[in-house]
Specification:
heterodimer; A: 484 residues; alpha+beta; Arc Repressor Mutant, subunit A; 3 domains; nine-stranded mixed sheet; 15 helices; elongated; B: 491 residues; alpha/beta; Amidase signature (AS) enzymes; eight-stranded mixed sheet; three-stranded mixed sheet; 38% helix
Amino acid sequence: MNSNWEVVIGLEIHTQLATKSKIFSGASTAYGADPNSQACLVDLGYPGVLPVLNGEVVRMAASFGLAVNATVAPRSIFARKNYFYPDLPKGYQISQYELPIVEHGEMMIRDEDGNEKRIGITRAHLEEDAGKSVHEGFGDATGIDLNRAGTPLLEIVSEPDLRSAKQAIAYMRKIHSIVRYLGISDGNMQEGSFRCDANVSVRPREQEELGTRAELKNLNSFRFIEKAINFEINRQIEILEDGGEVIQETRLYDSTKDETRSMRSKEEANDYRYFPDPDLLPVELDEEFIEAVREALPELPDAKLARFVDQYKLKFADAEILTLSRALADYFEAVAGNTDAEPQIAANWVIGELSAALNKEGIEIGDSKIEAAALAGLLDRIADDTISGKIAKEVFEAMWSGEGTADDVIEAKGLKQITDSSAIEGIVDAVIKANPGQAAEYRGGKDKLLGFFVGQVMKETGGKANPGQVNEILKKKLLDNGPG
Amino acid sequence: MGQDTAALHTRSLSELSRGLNEGEFTSKELTEVLLQRIDDHQERLNAFITVTADNALQRADAADKARANGHSGALNGLPVVHKDLFCTQGVLTTCGSNILGNFISPYDATVVERINAAGAVMLGKTNMDEFAMGSSNETSYYGPVTNPWNEKLSPGGSSGGSAAAVAARIVPAATGTDTGGSIRQPAALTGTVGLKPTYGRVSRYGMVAFASSLDQAGVITRSAEDAALLLGVMAGYDHRDSTSVDHPVPDYVAGLSKPVKGLKIGIVRQHFDEGLDAGCEERIKVALATLKDRGAVLIEIDLPNIDLSVPTYYVVAPAECSSNLSRFDGVRFGHRADNPEDLLDMYCRSRGEGFGAEVQRRVMTGTYVLSAGYYDAYYLKAQKVRQLISQDFKKAFKNVDVIAGPTAPTTAFAIGEKTDDPITMYLNDIYTIGANLAGLPGVSVPCGFADGLPVGLQLVGPHFAEETILACAHQYQQLTDWHTQGPEDFS
């Protein structure tokens, strides 16, 4: 990136709250139902109907607020955001404007240099989602599906504290992790449960005043966000270096073309005519309620990370990966707590083999084909030298394919490690005898050839010989059997 | 029985209830009589948009059977009509507008549901100013309602059809809604009783919204006793309306016997300043004297900011209406323009064709006062003034039990007289709007005639003091017979 310019990014993250029913009606929020089958009269904005607040969304928003050290407002107000759109049934969206439920939060991320950086969270407010316009399959007309209308959203607005696409992603991943830890959102980006808009601007370094920003819409994967922001940064820098001016506008990211393009300019922007919704009472929360929410908070990612490093002596980077998802962290702890292997070994397996297997099949940790206890059983066999780490990978694959426990697989395939010294010595002798030239070279000082001999022995034993023992015996025999 | 049923239409709800209980006549006979009356006078009054005759006869039959089987709700077999702003399942619900000219509601408003559950028989839906925006019933897409006292005159509005139907002895009771005086003013202009309860007393669910923070459902009857009977059925908390209040519902009928002796009645100095018709003023003063004779204490009070109520209202109400009426976009229900060129054309023409001039005026006014750059100067300021007006009332009610005065500045005015001058029309609600802004209950009671036309006395109470104002109105009606005097053409 051009170092003459400083990038300034703020994110607005829309998180769908994982309630069973909608924010202002009793209709279901389940994803994927037939169009308009989950929209009741309230969601359809029929004449005379009224919204009734789902109390669960308030608890969820409050728990988020407390998790990011924010103020949970003792009094917040729902407001109407007025604009016409066919998939906005009432002609206004119920949102929060002047008095949101959460304000003044913060989040620590790691920047590119690995340093901790504080990102301010301006506010988080509750609102209802709109429906969906369907442009395909209706000829010249547009279809409207209002299943999503009234789905509860928490919009989390950051301060413009982010200085690169990388930081924006780090921040977003952290928020993603927190909402899932709290159990307030499934964070499913494909289904649109977690998406963001990015306000991006650039300014000359040392300049105080912010540059003109563009708002990027429709960012629904971490990869797209990074690409869209980087595209936008370059676009703005190019304009400015050519002596042009960035105009304030909303831009849409097109993932197929990997570019952003103008949606509407500031002049075309709506005047939303916000005003307090007279159909809803102010949300008033007392200390008792807030304390109850605080007490029910789970251990959060940062605290868990610190504990993993402290309690399990894990490498920081590994603890960081493991604690990104609560389910992964729980899995790790279940493995580490059930095996004689070192916790770091357990971490290596969870991050390595297990994650790779999950990724390959595109499944979540909760659907893992190897239960934590079973993986612990495998690690026990490494710890007690029944099998080597290398053989363990073979056993893992068999377990993943449903061939039983580690012990079942070791037994069935005869993978038990050879630790009988006399057996190994016999093989070592044969290998040295078969390769006299190399043996002579080794003795002549070509130490590197030890690896060759180890390889030969392992080949002979089908990898089952204990590698430590093989090394030791080889070294001894190669020197012992020397001529003369 | 033929001779008896001929006069059924003159009886009050309470009297009809007694007649049904004593087996003097059946609900079906009563329903047939009143349906005939609707038919006879529809051309002259235009009080109804929809008549639900078949349904009514079925309901009446069912009510008679229920009674025979010993089941009887508080309103079993009694006739009621609803302002066409209440959603009624399976029945056209137009709000007096072309935009809902084809709207069959898929559900019942809570008010309708409760009245139905009490066994009442709905005869039809009454005409009204479009979306309740008007004080003369002239803004209705379905034509103006005429005043039973004089066909050239307006019955007031917006609940003009309900008021005319009750005044003309077509039905004993009708529901209405009151956002700035839409129950009380037509009640005054037609010589009926109009009750607007405390904001939150009656659920707004299923009542098509005009200005959500001001709208309240109420009743138009001929006696305070009937109003008490109906309110008892309608009132109460509804989980579907977050602004309805969980406050106990007293036995309003039982509370009517409370004497006026010792009742402290506030007289607002500003109400008699200027703009009040001399004939009306005289009737109000005589009525107050009557109450004083029975032991009420008249206390002059000040509502220093009450003069600001009309301008305040005409910022707050249009603001809310501009947003509330956004859902009428031609997308999901109601009128949609033919062959729209594109989305914008569909919106503009559907709404342009669907809404009348007054509704459009208020939507535009409301959009303007909420716009960026004008919000603080208009909407926010109006909300602040609204607070001041509420505080004035609160202060006043520390010293008095009710506030009494005129309901409207004049008697009924001619149809067409004020249509070109919205401001004069708006001033007709000058005495009623304060109660809406402060969320207070108010009732208009007939208190005589000026030049042969009815005059209404308004009684306003503190929050949830419906019992007090109804008792005062009832006691007044025990002393006077204005409410038993109907228009000659409809005897």
